[in-house]
Specification:
Length: 511
Amino acid sequence: MTLDIFSVVGGKEATGGAAYDSINPSRVDEVVARVHLADAGAFAAACRTAAAAQAEWARVPAPVRGRVIASVGRLVEANAEALARLVTREIGKPYAEALGEVREIVDTCDFFLGEGRRLYGQTVPSEMPDKSLFTFRVPVGVAAVVTAGNFPVAVPSWYLVPALLCGNAVVWKPAEYAAASAHALYRLLAAAGLPDGVLNLVLADGEQTFAGLETALEEGTVHKVGFTGSSGVGRRIGELCGRHLQSPCLELGGKNPMVVMPDADLDLAVEGALFAGFGTAGQRCTSLGTVIVHESVHGEFLARYTAAVAGAEIGDPAGEVLCGPLLDHRFAERYEEYLGWIEPHHTVVSGPVGRITPENPRGGFTGSGGLYYHPVVVDGVRAGDRLFLEETFGPIVGVTSFGTLEEAIALANRPGYGLSSSIYTTDPKAAFRFRAGVGAGMVSVNNSTSGAEAHLPFGGNGKSGNGSRQSGVWVLDQFTRWQAMNWDYSGRLQKAQMDVAEIVPDPGFRL
């Protein structure tokens, strides 16, 4: 069944707009949803609607807003299997992973439902008598949230849940190739009792969204921008927001390194590299980019890794597979370009390269008619190669070697991204030296580069973001502003730093 999906603004479906077909990438002739796209004017109008609704929502007591978030969590939990099946059908994510993604929404709601009672400010002592100082968290206003489709429901919840909890209104623009999943999540949020206009869903392409966002910023109807996507688009959004003296929340790409020390448990490292490199078909911002292996165990690790890749189940995402298809035709085309970065000095150690077809088969393959690609492991990458330096959004992992930990850290930092990183070692000293030296916002020890928990800060540095963080209490700084208040009840004007009592010591006192 093909769904008709429209934007929803102020609680009402928008009509018209150019049609976009969201396909099932595991069966490309199947249209999951006909998505009716809005234009820049509709996006800007949605921001005006959100601005009109925000003040009333902010007046709802924060603990009550927390109960709304609790309801979202219970609704998602009750609909978990249906939502996960839709995610699998629309973007080809293996069902087990899709179910885990839905669970992440529940975890996020479970964490933030209590934050409605913990949006703490402080009472601060004054330097003057009969005067009190206070700090308060206040909502920023309207948040415009633009998300990618590789995590079509979990990552949006990282923005939507805290933004709404803090008293903001939201205009959410999901990826059009994941619009059906986004629309389903919107309906669950609306069913929790959100007033019309507090959460608005706008379906649009990238250029119309950017133009609409530019208008909204000029009109003053957007006060925070959240964006998950490529580093290139993130730069454009950062520049746009900077012109309006705003700091966006940017969660961008990664070239995530995994260091394998000579004392590593190689079987564990292989398991981590398999999941990090090829889970979600390598289409995570935290996917493994390059394995940096100590020269003494390089050969053994590579042999075990290639054997694991060869034995991994690839195919129908409804089954128990390591990975399914690429997300959409645009990602398949881009991945073909990345495969062109394989150079003569590289060695492809994983077998066939390219799309899985009857002419280019894979043993044990369970898919049919989809955007399925062979997982690729490339040995011999060098620090100057594009394959080493740039994000490759798809099932391809590079491998290189190192001699000292300092060299490994330098290689890990060389691409200039700074999202996730990993080290496999049994030496605590090596683990802490790596943590101190690597530029990534997230570090795993004896674990893969992928995986996030709802109560830990998520985000990157360098090309991976502007230092903003999602998840846990840290994201509250994205969706609130600090307000300071002083209350002087002395009955007279007391001037700070001027009318301060002074107690004079005796500096010459000696025992």
